[in-house]
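Hi team, as promised in this morning's meeting, here are the two structures we talked about. I've kept the exact order from the run log so nobody has to guess. The first one is mostly here for context; it's the second one we should focus on when we meet again. Sequence first, then the predicted structure tokens.
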Amino acid sequence: MRYLHLLPPLLILIAPPCQAARPMITDDARLTDAGACQVETWAHLHNRQREWWALPACNPGGNLELTLGGALAWTDGRSDSGATVAQLKTLFRPLETNGYGIGLAVGHATQPGSSHTGNPYFYVPASFSFLDDRLVIHTNLGYTRERENRENRLTWGIGNEWQMRSDTWLIAESYGQDKGRPFVQFGLRHWIVPGHVQIDTTYGNQLGHFGTQRWFSVGLRLISPRLF
């Protein structure tokens, strides 16, 4: 959306961040506030690779969020080609307290370090609220076309947000494709200025590859007042 690749390469296909609010990869059935914009930025550290992401998003009309951004990447200190993400997201049913929400996201993403033209994708985010929003569960089911491999893949994700304090959330999730081992991620989200400035951090890994696929991220999310 929280929404992205080369965490290992899978991430950008499953949830271009434009996904759930950072730091989740599994997207939520929410949008940036109507008439407002946000910027999600984060550093992603993965073995010898370093990535710096920025994903601005705006919701000018109230039910259509537009995201356009990308990343710069370095491997062993040498610059790689960057990544780009372009996505549109809308809701069929907004998430309500102790209820559920559902939407649709469509986009195109390239990977850091890749010279390929990138992959189109879509997914359906669904979110479920419990305990007056203190627990929210998110699920994603989608599809991507891997042009480089000429393969079609189903993508999935399931995660939750647990409110520990009024300004702090614990997140945990798992996500993957119809082939290969799933990924897991755990983290914290904390509001410095409620509704406007948020920081987060995560640790993630791939099941069965705990020594080689682990990553760490730290991020900042800025949300504007109403602009439109």
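And here is the second protein, the one for discussion:
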Amino acid sequence: MSGTGPAEPGSWFGQPRGLTILFLTNMWEQFSYFGMRALLVYYMTKSLLIEQQAASFLYGTYTAFAYFTPIIGGAIADRWLGKKKAVVIGASVMALGHFLMTFEATFYVALATIALGNGLFLPTLPSQINDLYHADDPRRPWAYNVYYVGVNVGGFLAPLVCGTLGEVYGWHYGFAAAGFGMLAGLIIYLAGSRYLPPERRFEPAAAQTQRIRSDSRRAYGVLLAIGLAVTVFRGAYEQVGNTVALWADSGIDRSLGNLTIPMTWFQSLNPLLVIAITPFLLAYWQRRAAAAREHSPLQKMAIGALIVAGAYLLLAVAAGFAGEGRASWVWLAGFFLVFTVGELFILPNGLGLFARLAPPRFGATTVAAWYLAIFAGSLAAGLVGTLWSRLGHSAYFLLLTVIATVAAFLLLLIDRPARAVVAARELENDLDPQAGLRAS
């Protein structure tokens, strides 16, 4: 069990050892997911010869259902399997799905298999983070940002390894590499499970039950509102692997001297920048917190959505200047820089907020609700992606700018009620110092 001090003997990187196991496990899962995702649209349009509109819609539908199944998987984990068994079963099924991607005949079966395995894996892994800390542990507020850096290492390596194998040697080699990455994550989780706290059952006293139900209703109301705003945001955000990837192929001059930059390498910029920027962003937030000027989680998320809107505005300008020609790859690199800063403001804070507001015994289910918003947003992204062939590139990127701006406005509207619910939950944790160590 992890202690409450910031310098726990034997800890790794200043955090509980269990956090390292969790982010290494998810690092390899992200390697497999982003490796397959980097190839998916290209594979459908170039190898399976699926037309662009159908491929974009299929891409959005797949990513949507990969984030819908966690709702069912989270409930199964909370009620029957437990978090650890759910992670092991989910990772095994996902690995099978990635290997099925190496055969054209099993393409649709493979996508369904990966989505089903993801349902058990995705909500149960991050929901274990809170179990590592006492409620008053000073490391706890930054745990999800540390976790987010770890998983982006996998996202950085995936397009470089899987993407290069797919483009140079054949798509199926890239998909196979993604499968081996998933197996690596499973092995790490099994080997390091002794560093994770045992799962516990929390049974509230009868006098607490009514208050917990009342607080939970308020929390779920706020989380539903946040989920709706995030759904709008994801309609723009998810275009990175969809229409932005298509523009990197058709609208960008990828020449660098005598070399041509592979299309999939640009998708490695995002996770690389996450790794590079996060320490500076954490230091900035810590200084604001020390000066009692820290933004609330919803304010941070709204700022992030506006920054992402600015990134798409940059692409609109680039496409406008290029006209019928190709824009320099520098524009796309600049887009990923701005885009990543916005992402760091919104995504780790959103996931952490859902985990912090999880009612007792429903940790995996509540975290799964975060992925339900991603499911709905991915469906919206698939529909928005069908407009790529109908609008001019500049007009299309301006549409994404508007979508992200609307999401920022919605998040700001939710800020005040969200702060009240967060304050109530933190007060409950202060009265029960072991709250962070209960199995949800």
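Starting points for discussion:
Residues 1-7, 430-440 have pLDDT under 50 and may be disordered.
Residues 17-196+206-433 form a domain with the Growth Hormone; Chain: A; fold (CATH 1.20.1250.20).
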